[in-house]
Amino acid sequence: MRVLAINDISCVGRCSIAATLPIISACGVECNVLPTAILSTHTGGFEGYTFRDLTKDIPDILRHWKSLHLKFDFIYSGYLGSIEQIDLVSAIKKEFLADGGVFVVDPVMGDNGDLYAGFTPKFVEKMRALCREADYILPNVTEACYLANAPYPLDKDGAKMALTKLQGLCARPIITGITDCDGVSVCYTNEQGEICTYAHENVEGFFCGAGDVFASAFVGALARGKSEEKSILLASEFAAAAIRRSAKEVPDKRFGLNFEAEIFPFLKNLND
Ligand code: PXL
């Protein structure tokens, strides 16, 4: 089983590839990477970060991979450093996804109702087109609102309506981080096609990278042969446990989730 993670390297801040590699490897699955950009930190709350766009390096990397006849069972894309990279990801899916392989798009674009620095309405439009090619999309509430043209924020009922709209883009959308009086929920369709939500207690404090921890665990569990619904529940439990722990243990939330300390319980659940 071979996963390709297309995401940035934020050198500090425990998100993107720095979260995906350890989590998918811990699942016992080979994780190959295609870095989209290198940043000194992620962009959520830090100032003065460096940003090197790697768009121009990607065609040469792909040429080499083609000469090796590489195919991937899963392609999981996250933070993309330029609009051009959206077309590249689409081409990578066509060229490198194995027959019967799974394409997972986390349409990383924003949080808390706003787009991240450097993202534009044109990017959202292009991302919508990439979502049409995906087997699964994993937007947070902000991204779901941008993609579905829904008003921010979403409660559980709003999320169910947005999910129905997103099914016009991709058969299997999963909306994360829905916050209401019941806590934080994830909204998805189960195997019977019914729209479901799964809630955790709400924990104070916003952590950049929580979506990447969820998405990486989801892909790792799917790659280990778990069902979609089981993978969602395992990934939600893992992300929620990391958030609960980090709310107490990480004084500066910009430095990300202490997901490392929750990997063993996650693996125990995965292997049960
Ligand atoms: O985890 C989302 C993310 C990924 N990559 C970069 C980011 C963010 C969120 O801010 O800035 C570079």
Give the SSE map:
Elements: E1 2-12, H1 17-26, E2 30-41, E3 51-53, H2 58-67, E4 72-77, H3 83-96, E5 97-105, E6 110-111, E7 114-115, H4 121-131, E8 136-137, H5 141-148, H6 156-166, E9 172-173, E10 175-180, E11 183-189, E12 195-200, H7 210-223, H8 228-249, H9 263-271
Parallel strand pairs: 1-2, 1-4, 4-5, 5-8, 8-9
Antiparallel strand pairs: 2-3, 6-7, 10-11, 11-12
Helix pairs in contact: 1-7, 2-3, 3-4, 5-6, 7-8, 8-9
Bound molecules: 3-hydroxy-5-(hydroxymethyl)-2-methylisonicotinaldehyde (PXL).
Structural class: alpha/beta
Q: Please summarize the sheet with the most strands.
A: 7 strands, mixed
Biggest sheet strand line-up: 3-2-1-4-5-8-9
Compounds present? 3-hydroxy-5-(hydroxymethyl)-2-methylisonicotinaldehyde
How far apart, in Å, are the first and last alpha carbons? 20 Å
Q: What share of residues is helical? A: 40-55%
**Percent strand:** 25-35%
- Tell me the radius of gyration: 17 Å
User: What is the N-to-C succession of helices and strands?
Assistant: EHEEHEHEEEHEHHEEEEHHH
Instruction: Please report the number of helical segments.
Output: 9
Low-confidence stretches: none
Shape: globular
Total number of beta strands: 12
Let me know the average pLDDT: 96
